[in-house]
């Protein structure tokens, strides 16, 4: 019974994705129509400059945003786990968790208005584009990293750090040689999560981006609401392949980190 | 120093933007760039209540809010029921198999949100896969109008948000103390009774968190209604999007966002309390 329901649920999640992937190999020009086996849409995808450009931008923005989000999320998680009660802590906690739960349309509008306000006051950012998307995605991602880091720090055995300190390590050396190696799986997981969020975001990027900085999801959204081509199916297969690969790598990392 | 950096990130990237949204709701639309006169200028307060007046002017936005909350509730309820069933399945699998099953839940999501929705478009539209199969089987003569309907919208919503429910529920159910259920069974409780009196109460906080984790973002969803929903079925996320991108009425978009935030304040506070309690 339990297994049947689980299978049914997985089938529901996978059915549209599998159909999408299967028709990537169809020769027909009409999406979701079988015209015999062909790889032509993968070729068409490889020659589609606009998709490639958008994908390249998404990749760069995603990696940069994940990195900044990991740095800021580490600071947030550290304060939440280690700084005990301090003045403004409830506000700190609520703000740290806010990006997790705010509707993305509100987040997008809020960050856009921030950039517009900054520009009016300081002249920076002179235009919206990759940099503003990077900052916006970092703001989203840091909250997710913070949750993971906080949980990991809370589960840590405090004696390990105490031992290092007793043996004369400065707090920075203790952090670098004891704490960091122990929490790095949470940082890796957080980086990957922030990267995924950035790579899949339509709404926030639509608000804070400008002309000439179209990320892949924004491009796909603008194209596919008009009607799709089998190139989109081919792209789904490519992304699924990358994801499986990344999943396998993450699996290996997890296995090594215990 | 760490705390300084953390405060800087929170105030700069979270608190200030939200404060600006709330303030901008009192701005005045303008034809310049940016298309708005802020509520506070060189000569002090110059704000207006125009945008808020617009919201309360007629029942259009009230209906929009109600429709959004209804869609979010139904989506969250369906995700909770289906997610609970799946989480039970995963949590009762052998521990070695559980990561693989979780990966199977998450992997379809890596095709990307937009592409996943186009899969539904391909399945549901008039000359789509489902209508094609049904017509070839002779079940129907004319294609059914499946796409751009409330049903298609709900399908897309549940499909997109289901993992948000499965993950916290699986985490909670996998950690639960099985001896409690065994004790109940040993004392003669039937499986249905064990489930209703032991398993369900134990999982209640996680279930509430899962419901809210779907409900809150679903209330402001933009992309799924845009791609699958009926064009005339106005939702608050789409209304904010439209005021900003089409009408270019920034104060109205900001006032609607503030109203949405106010409506979600209780669910958000509840969710944060639940996730801290863990």
Automatic annotation (TrEMBL), chain A:
CDD domains: TM_PBP2 (cd06261). InterPro entries: Bact_Polyamine_Transport, MetI-like, MetI-like_sf. Keywords: Cell membrane, Membrane, Transmembrane, Transmembrane helix, Transport. It is a multi-pass membrane protein. Residues 55-250 form the ABC transmembrane type-1 domain. Its main location: membrane. It is found in: Cell membrane. It comes from the Bacteria. The chain crosses the membrane at residues 57-80, 92-118, 130-151, 163-184, 204-222, 234-253. PANTHER family: PUTRESCINE TRANSPORT SYSTEM PERMEASE PROTEIN POTI. Belongs to the binding-protein-dependent transport system permease family. CysTW subfamily. This is ABC transporter permease subunit.
Automatic annotation (TrEMBL), chain B:
Its main location: membrane. Keywords: Cell membrane, Membrane, Transmembrane, Transmembrane helix, Transport. It is a multi-pass membrane protein. PANTHER family: INNER MEMBRANE ABC TRANSPORTER PERMEASE PROTEIN YDCU-RELATED-RELATED, PUTRESCINE TRANSPORT SYSTEM PERMEASE PROTEIN POTH. CDD domains: TM_PBP2. The chain crosses the membrane at residues 71-93, 100-123, 152-174, 194-219, 250-271. InterPro entries: MetI-like, MetI-like_sf. It comes from Roseococcus pinisoli. Belongs to the binding-protein-dependent transport system permease family. CysTW subfamily. Residues 65-271 form the ABC transmembrane type-1 domain. The keyword Iron does not apply. It is found in: Cell membrane. Pfam families: BPD_transp_1. This is ABC transporter permease.
């Amino acid at each position: 019974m339990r297994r049947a329901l689980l299978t049914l649920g997985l089938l529901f999640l996978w059915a549209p994705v599998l159909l999408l992937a299967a028709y990537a190999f169809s020769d027909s020009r009409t999406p979701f129509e079988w015209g015999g086996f062909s790889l032509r849409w993968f070729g068409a995808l490889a020659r589609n400059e606009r998709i490639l450009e958008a994908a390249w931008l998404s990749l760069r923005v995603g990696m940069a945003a994940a990195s900044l989000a990991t740095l800021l999320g580490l600071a947030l998680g550290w304060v939440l786990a280690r700084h005990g009660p301090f003045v403004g802590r409830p506000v700190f906690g609520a703000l740290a968790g806010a990006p997790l739960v705010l509707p993305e349309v509100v987040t997008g509008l809020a960050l856009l208005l921030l950039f517009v306000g900054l520009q009016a006051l300081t002249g920076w950012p002179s235009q919206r584009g990759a940099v503003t998307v990077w900052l916006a995605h970092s703001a989203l991602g840091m909250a997710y990293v913070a949750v993971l880091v906080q949980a990991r720090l809370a589960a840590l055995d405090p004696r390990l750090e105490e031992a290092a300190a007793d043996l004369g390590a400065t707090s920075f050396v203790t952090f670098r040689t004891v704490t960091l190696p122990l929490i790095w799986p949470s940082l890796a997981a957080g980086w990957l999560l922030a990267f995924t969020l950035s790579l899949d975001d339509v709404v926030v990027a639509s608000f804070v981006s400008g002309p000439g900085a179209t990320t892949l999801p924004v491009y796909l959204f603008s194209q596919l609401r008009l009607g799709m081509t089998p190139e989109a199916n081919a792209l789904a297969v490519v992304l699924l392949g990358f994801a499986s690969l990344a999943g396998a790598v993450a699996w290996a990392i997890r296995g090594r980190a215990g | 120093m760490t705390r300084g950096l953390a405060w800087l990130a929170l105030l700069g990237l979270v608190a200030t933007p939200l404060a600006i949204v709330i303030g901008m709701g009192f701005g005045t639309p303008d034809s310049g760039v940016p298309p708005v006169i802020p509520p506070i200028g060189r000569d002090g307060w110059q704000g207006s209540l125009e945008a808020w007046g617009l919201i309360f002017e007629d029942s259009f936005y009230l209906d929009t809010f109600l429709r959004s909350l209804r869609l979010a509730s139904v989506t969250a309820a369906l995700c909770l029921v289906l997610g609970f069933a799946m989480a039970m399945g995963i949590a009762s699998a052998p521990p070695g198999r559980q990561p693989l099953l979780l990966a199977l839940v998450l992997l379809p999501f890596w095709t990307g949100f937009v592409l996943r929705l186009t899969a539904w478009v391909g399945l549901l539209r008039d000359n789509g896969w489902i209508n094609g199969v049904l017509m070839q089987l002779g079940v129907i003569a004319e294609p059914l109008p499946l796409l751009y309907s409330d049903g298609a919208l709900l399908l897309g919503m549940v499909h997109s948000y289901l993992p948000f429910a499965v993950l916290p529920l699986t985490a909670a159910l996998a950690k639960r103390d099985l001896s409690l259920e065994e004790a109940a069974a040993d004392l003669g409780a039937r499986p249905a009774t064990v489930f209703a009196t032991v398993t369900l109460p134990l999982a209640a906080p996680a279930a509430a968190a899962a419901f809210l984790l779907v409900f809150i973002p679903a209330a402001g969803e933009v992309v799924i209604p845009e791609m699958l929903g009926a064009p005339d079925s106005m939702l608050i996320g789409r209304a904010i999007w439209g005021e900003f991108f089409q009408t270019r009425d920034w104060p109205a978009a900001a006032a609607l966002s503030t109203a949405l935030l106010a409506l979600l304040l209780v669910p958000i506070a509840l969710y944060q309390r639940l996730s801290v309690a863990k």
